[in-house]
Design brief:
The chain is of the alpha/beta class. It has eight helices and eight strands. It binds 2'-deoxycytidine-5'-monophosphate. The site of 2'-deoxycytidine-5'-monophosphate has 14 residues, from helix 2, helix 3 and helix 7.
């Protein structure tokens, strides 16, 4: 079973992904963290060809075998990852890694291009939408930031970059279920998607080959 979750920055992909992965006992793959880890490597002065990204069985992201999962969510890496994600050679490497991880495994994978590029045959494709203002509020409260205006500006900058890059821009797959979450609690969202996944599970024949 492959579940693809896509959507813009701070749309709730990881919260939904975590809940689904724990409910079904699937591996959660947070692909944004892989782009963040590449940006961290560049920040540390490493050339691209000396940056090796991997993921262990617990879903932790490694940069040259060093577990960096807990230091990837900073405003600097928000922008750095979105910039590095425009580079074709980076996307090619990470898409291949993500496809290898999903082969023969049940996964919940979240990102920007999962339903369109990484797992085009995913069994369930969810695309989360939420207004930039609502996403800025959520992000500011997660990170205990008081400057809502700055957070909103950063989110809009990242949205624009993610939506206008030439390779794999942020777009819902034509067969994705689009869910607007502005007026929805996480619990409501999770039960809606669990129902979709269960319906798919009962029809059999899933994509994790
Ligand atoms: O989901 P996130 O905020 O952790 O992602 C960080 C950046 O990585 C995001 O701005 C764009 C890029 N990204 C991408 O291009 N493709 C993905 N599948 C995941 C993330």
């Amino acid at each position: 079973m492959h579940i693809a979750i896509d959507g813009p920055a701070a749309s709730g992909k990881t919260s939904l992904g975590r809940a689904l992965a724990s409910h079904f006992g699937f591996l959660l793959v947070e692909t944004g963290k892989m782009y963040r880890a590449v940006a961290l490597g560049l920040d540390r002065g490493l050339p691209l060809d000396k940056i090796h990204i991997s993921m262990n069985d617990a879903g932790r992201i490694l940069l040259n075998n060093d577990d960096v999962s807990d230091i990837l969510h900073t405003p600097r890496l928000d922008q750095g990852s979105s910039r590095v994600a425009t580079r074709p050679e980076v996307r090619q490497l990470l898409v291949r890694l993500q496809q290898e991880i999903a082969t023969g495994r049940d996964v919940v994978m979240e990102g920007r291009d999962i339903g369109t590029v990484v797992l085009p045959h995913a069994d369930v494709k969810i695309f989360l939408q939420a207004s930039a203002e609502e996403r800025a509020r959520r992000r500011a409260s997660q990170r205990h930031q008081s400057q809502l205006d700055d957070t909103l500006r950063e989110i809009i900058t990242r949205d624009t970059r993610d939506q206008t890059r030439t390779i794999a821009p942020l777009n819902p797959a034509s067969d994705a279920t689009i869910i607007h979450t502005d007026n929805k609690s996480l619990a409501e969202l999770v039960s809606e998607v669990i129902a979709l996944v269960e319906e798919r599970l009962h029809t059999g024949d899933t994509a994790a080959k």
